Amino acid sequence: MTQALNRLMQAAMVGTLFVGLLFYPTQTAEASAQSGVLRTLNWEQSIDHTIPGGAPSGFVKQWPDGHGPTLVTSPTRDGSYAARFQLDVDDAMVSSGKRNEISQRDEQPPNVDRWYGFSVRLPGSWVYDDSAEIVSQWHQCDDASCGGGSPPLALLTDEGRWKVDFRGQIVDLDAYSTDTWTDWVFHVNWRTDSAGVLEVWRDGTRVMNLTGATYSGGPRSPYFKFGIYKWDWNDGQATQTRQRVMYYDALRLGDGSANLADVDPSQGGTSVCANTYAPHSASATTFESVNPPQQAIDGNLSTRWSGQGYGASLILDLGAIRSICGSQVAWYQGDLRWNDYTVYTSLDGLSYSKAWEGRSSQETSGYETRHFTNGARNARYVKVSFWGNSIGNGWASITEARVVG
User: Fold this and answer.
1) pTM
2) Looking at residue 3, what is its pLDDT?
3) CA distances from 213 to 188, 210, 258, 260, 404 (A)
């Protein structure tokens, strides 16, 4: 064990010992019905092209001024863009450390079930260093009541190997390879009692499965951060390297209704649910004159359709029958309030069947993907029906809507 990892472990809130640490060298990811994706950040949407100036919607910047992550067109894992992170030993300190990270807001509800899928590429310049660095971490809330110390969960590289630090337990997941994408999926039921769960998949194979408390406590569940954090550089002294560069792509965050296939980074452009259809036209059961339905399909997130009342519905016409498997809805002020809604489909615009029902995340004002509960179906019309929101004003307001097929 390196000195750096020893220091990290000493700072960690170790808590209850875990039972059932198992390795599954042959179990592979199995496809199943997709649902519950709260956020996709694969850098393909223009609304997410905010770096290096600022963090994407729903996230917080944690990087030195003038040295943030940037978008690149090569290499990529999912689509046309990926994020490039660079950290130098002489970078300025940010949040009490040497880091170049993008962070969720510290507003995760307590005891939530979450899925996290992402892909990391270490270039050839990621040379051996016996000083570790974190490339993804889950941090306990920022209040004093959360116990402080090291994050309860982190993905690291150290001494040429992938490692997971889970509440002070270091799990070695074998050597890393450079100049190739490594796909990761973490499933965590954030609990302080024995009902907690941690599962980890690397390149489609499950490599960790633990049960027990997953964090030590506090009013909120841990929040997710990704990028590079290298604490041994905090004093400005180089280790065996002076620079780290890393690429990050295909991030998908899911709730408890999601599964492995929903957040799998390998789905990319080859998924049967990879195509996005812009509706041919839009109508609505009700709308105010300044916010008509066509403004929900104009490609502009600053305009919207608004309709008042329980069951107010936006209806999308694809122009022809297509095989579709989900919807993408961007709610007005979706990062400030949740909306309850149902998605229906129809072949003829007269008879509709339910495809998905649930609540928006209250985490983003951008698109939220919801895959249909029972998989793909043929349809020409998609109806989004509103039932209420967290502020109780009785208004449905959608800035953009489209269909996944």
Assistant:
1) 0.63
2) 44
3) 10, 9, 21, 21, 37
